[in-house]
C-alpha cells in the first residue's frame, strides 16, 4: 500500500482552476518532486496535502486513512518552507525543540533529540545561536531539523533551496538527499529547478497549468517525455515541425526521416519532432546511417566541459548540438565548417501537433 495517495485532487479559486484532478501515489521512503514553472499549481497541491488549503474535490489518503478534511494538526507531516519560517526570538535549540515540547516530550528526551538532529544536519554546538546569527544555509538546516524532530511520516519541502546561492544550494541538495535516504522518511518536494528534481527525486510529477503532464522516474522523463511541454521543460531539446508520411516515416526540413510515429495518424498530419542536443551524432556517420543530413556550423558557444553548436539545416531548420572538447579537436569542428550528422531514429520523439 502506498504511504500517500492523491486521487483526482482539484483546487479552484473562483473561476480559476489552480490544480486539476491531480493523481499520484508515493511509496514508503520515496522521494517525489513536484516540478513545474511558477503558477503551475505545485505549491497549492503541496499545501492541500498539508491541510493548509482545502481541496475543492478529490481525496488524500495517508497510510490507508482519508485525511482530505483533516486539519493540519491532525496530519502526520513535517514541513520546511522556502522562507525557513524560524522563530527569530528563539535560539536554534528552542526552534528545533518547539514541536517536541508541543507534544509534551520530556526535557531530557527533548535535549537528546535536538542534539541528535543538529549533528545529523551538520550544526553541532550551535544550540545557543539565534537565526539572525546564521547564514541562509544554516537557517535552512535548522528548519529541516525542526521538521524532522517530531519524526513525521511525511516530510514536505516547499522550494527549500531557492533562496540560497548556487554553491550552497548544490551542497545542501546532496545533504538533504543523503539524510532522507538515511532516515527513510517519505518526502515530497516542490521545485521549479529541473536540475534539482533530476538529481534528488526517485520520481517527478511535471506540472503545467494545474495538471500533472507526466509522473515518472527522472531518466524516463528525460529520455521519453510524454508531451512537448515535458520535453521542453526538462532539459534542453530541439523541436522541428514535421508531417506524417507513413508508419515509421515523417517529413521534416524537405527530407524523410525514420522515427517511431504515434498510431492513428493520417497522411499529412502535422507533427512535432524533438531530439536532445547530445543525441545528434557526428562520429562514424556512414553512408548508410539512418537520418543522415548535412549541416553548417553557424555558431559555437563555449560552455566549459562542452560547446553548444548552432547547426543550420537546409529548409531553414536550426538545431542545437552539444560537442565535447575531444570531439571538437578530433573532428576539427569550427564555426563556418560543414558536417555530416545523424539523428538516431530511437532518439527522436514524435508528437501530434
Features of this protein?
9 helices, 19 strands, alpha+beta, single chain, six-stranded mixed beta sheet
How do the helices and strands follow one another from N- to C-terminus? EEEHEEEHHHEHEHEEHHEEEEEEEHEE
Q: So what's the oligomer here?
A: single chain
Tell me the overall shape.
elongated
Structural class: alpha+beta
Strand arrangement across the biggest beta sheet: 6-7-8-3-9-10
- State the helical fraction: 25-40%
Strand content is: 25-35%
Low-confidence stretches: none
Can you give the mean pLDDT?
93
What is the CA-atom radius of gyration, in angstroms? 25 Å
- State the end-to-end distance: 38 Å
Topology, number of strands? 19
Please report the number of helical segments.
9
Characterize the largest beta sheet: strand count, sense, and whether it forms a barrel. Answer: 6 strands, mixed
Amino acid at each position: 500500500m502506498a504511504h500517500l495517495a492523491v486521487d483526482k485532487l482539484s483546487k479552484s479559486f473562483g473561476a480559476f482552476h489552480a490544480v486539476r484532478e491531480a493523481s499520484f501515489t508515493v511509496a514508503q521512503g520515496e522521494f517525489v518532486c513536484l516540478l513545474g514553472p511558477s503558477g503551475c499549481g505545485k505549491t497549492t497541491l503541496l499545501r492541500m496535502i498539508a491541510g493548509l488549503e482545502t481541496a475543492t474535490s478529490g481525496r488524500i489518503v495517508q497510510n490507508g486513512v482519508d485525511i482530505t478534511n483533516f486539519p493540519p494538526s491532525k496530519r502526520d507531516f513535517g514541513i520546511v518552507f522556502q522562507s525557513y519560517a524560524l522563530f527569530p526570538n528563539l535560539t536554534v535549540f528552542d526552534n528545533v525543540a518547539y514541536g517536541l515540547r508541543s507534544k509534551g516530550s520530556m526535557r531530557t528526551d527533548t535535549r537528546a533529540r535536538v542534539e541528535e538532529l543538529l549533528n545529523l544536519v551538520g550544526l553541532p554546538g550551535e544550540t545557543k545561536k539565534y537565526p539572525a546569527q546564521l547564514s541562509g544555509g544554516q537557517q535552512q538546516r535548522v528548519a529541516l531539523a525542526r521538521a524532522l524532530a517530531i519524526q513525521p511520516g511525511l516530510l514536505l519541502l516547499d522550494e527549500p533551496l531557492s533562496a540560497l546561492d548556487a554553491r550552497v544550494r548544490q551542497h545542501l541538495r546532496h545533504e538533504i538527499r543523503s539524510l532522507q535516504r538515511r532516515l527513510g522518511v517519505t518526502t515530497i518536494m516542490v521545485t521549479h529547478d529541473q536540475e534539482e528534481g533530476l538529481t534528488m527525486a526517485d520520481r517527478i510529477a511535471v506540472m503545467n497549468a494545474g495538471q500533472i503532464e507526466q509522473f515518472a522516474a527522472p531518466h524516463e522523463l528525460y529520455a521519453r517525455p510524454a508531451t512537448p511541454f515535458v520535453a521542453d521543460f526538462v532539459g534542453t531539446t530541439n523541436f522541428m515541425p514535421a508531417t506524417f508520411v507513413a508508419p515509421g516515416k515523417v517529413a521534416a526540413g524537405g527530407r524523410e526521416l525514420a522515427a517511431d510515429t504515434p498510431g492513428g495518424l493520417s497522411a499529412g498530419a502535422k507533427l512535432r519532432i524533438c531530439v536532445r542536443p547530445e543525441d545528434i551524432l557526428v562520429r562514424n556517420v556512414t553512408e548508410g546511417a539512418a537520418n543522415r543530413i548535412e549541416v553548417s556550423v553557424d555558431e559555437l558557444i563555449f560552455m566549459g566541459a562542452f560547446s553548444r553548436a548552432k547547426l543550420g539545416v537546409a529548409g531553414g531548420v536550426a538545431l542545437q548540438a552539444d560537442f565535447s572538447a575531444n570531439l571538437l579537436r578530433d573532428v576539427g569542428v569550427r564555426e563556418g565548417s560543414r558536417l555530416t550528422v545523424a539523428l538516431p531514429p530511437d532518439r527522436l520523439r514524435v508528437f501530434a501537433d
